[in-house]
Amino acid sequence: MASINSVWKRLLGVEGVVVEKWDFDEETRAFVAHVRPRRSERERCSVCHRRCARYDHGSGRRQWRALDLGTVQAFLEAEMPRVTCVEHGVVVQDVPWARPGSRFTLDFEDQCAWLAVHTNQTAVSQLLRVAWKTVGRIVRSVGEDAREHTDLLSGLRRIGIDELSHRKKHKYVTVVLDHDTGRLVWMAAGRDMETLRKFFDELGPERSARLELVSADAAAWIADVVTERAPQAKQCMDPFHVVQWASEALDLVRREKWNELRSAGAGGRAKDLKNARWALWKNPENLSGQQARTLGWLAKSNKTLYRAYLLKESFRSVFHLPFAEAKERLDGWLKWAARSRPWSFVKLAKSIRTYKERITASLLHGLSNALVEAKNTQLRLLVRQAFGFHNVQAFINLAMLKLAGLCPPLPGRS
Fold it and tell me: What is the bridge-based pairing of β-strands 30-37 and 72-79?
């Protein structure tokens, strides 16, 4: 049968310490357990965990908030002497139940971080009875501690780079994802060459030289930095963005024809053309019966617009074919678009030729930013979940905890 002392240690999540006594503070209505580290864990540096000589008694006894016992708050209390470390000088001794500098136990912080990832910070602060800013500080502390034991930039071969708007007025973050693990590996405020160079600075020349494939959109600031820091890596143009260009070129043709009909006084046909937008944008396999009939009407009444639709669909099909066939169809499409009547597709063909090498690399390796876009969707959910972030670093800390695999399990779970 377990002793009362063992039961208390298990309840408090501090099985590796000695519980000297416990009492109930009537003033604060809280349990207080008086503890000390085991002999083997005493007088260690809180930075490097090295055994050191005692310097003095420090500032006396300290308390750490533990997980609640039912509806009652619980605290650990212990002496906190200072020690002299040969490397770090005079520091407060390390304790096995809390991170250095924290006033919360490991279990409390881990549970707070887990809850912050899975629900909004207001609910977390009310449930755990801590301030909103405290939740943010705990998320940062847990994330930093996890990153000390996990090298997210190790073994990168295929990465995706993108930007995400996290607030109004063009507030962006740059996101880097590992295609092989599906994890978010790096994130920073900004979306320019200097921001991305910081990623390669952290990655280092040796690991940058091991990159094989990089997927991104057509942003020049991404392509230029990748060429500068990892020239051996093949750059793959994200198919989604390229097909989006074709959809935009098609819509330019539709609007041009719509304006022609309005100018000619054909208001009814102009309205029908305006309502045809979704039929033109949607994939053929997803069309409703009415939208399919609309396309049939366009094929007879507006051959220029229908030709533009066929150009868009032919281009989209390139990315669903085996490489050899896709490459051949892309070459044929470029010739067709270059001699077509819609000027927007002539212009698009010129752009495609500019990025043809990167588009061909995407076709060959089957690499896109679809995984990055999926992570961006989760990141946008985090922004809504926290009712917006006034501090971008708080957003980055929470995002790394959730999407980089750094979130700890709930205490007592494996």
Answer: parallel
Residue ending a domain, choose from 72, 103, 134: 103
Phi/psi for 187 (5° steps) reads -160, 135
Considering only CA atoms, which of 334, 335, 329, 243 is closest in space to residue 283? 243
Question: Residue length, the chain?
Answer: 414
**What pairs with residue 380 in β-bridges?**
none
Helix axes of 323-338 and 343-354: crossing angle, nearest 10 degrees? 140
pLDDT, tens digit (0-9, with 9 covering 90-100), for 335-349: 999 888 788 999 999
Kindly state whether residues 207 and 228 are assigned to the same domain: yes
Please give the structure tokens belonging to residue 358. 């990167």
Q: What is the CATH number of the domain that holds 143?
A: 3.30.420.10
- Considering the domain architecture, whether residues 111 and 232 belong to the same structural domain is answered as yes
- List pLDDT tens digits, range 265-299: 776 677 777 777 777 888 878 778 888 888 788 87
pTM equals 0.83
Please state, in angstroms and rounded to a whole number, the distance separating the CA atoms of residues 17 and 37.
5
Q: Does residue 130 have a pLDDT over 50? A: yes
Q: What angle do CA 286, 289, 293 make, to 5 degrees?
A: 110
Handedness of CA 152, 156, 162, 163 (dihedral sign): positive
Q: Is 215 helix (H, G, I), strand (E, B) or coil?
A: strand
Q: Are residues 216 and 163 in the same domain?
A: yes
Residues 113, 73 share a domain? no
Do 178 and 291 have their domain in common? no
Say how far apart CA 388 and CA 190 lie, in whole Å.
17
Please say whether the beta carbons of 368 and 244 come within 8 A: no
Domain count, the chain: 3
Which residue's entry shows tokens 């091991």? 210
The answer to whether residues 163 and 269 belong to one domain is: no
**By three-state DSSP, how is residue 73 classified?**
strand
Query: What percent of the residues of the chain are helix, what percent strand, and what percent coil, each to the nearest 5?
Result: 50, 20, 30
Query: Do 263 and 352 lie in a common domain?
Result: yes
> What is the helix (H) or strand (E) element at residue 183, kind and residue range?
none
Residues 244 and 148 in one domain: no
* CB distance 177 to 159 below 8 Å: yes
Containing structural domain, residue 150: 104-236+368-414
Antiparallel, parallel or unpaired: β 184-189 and 158-167? unpaired
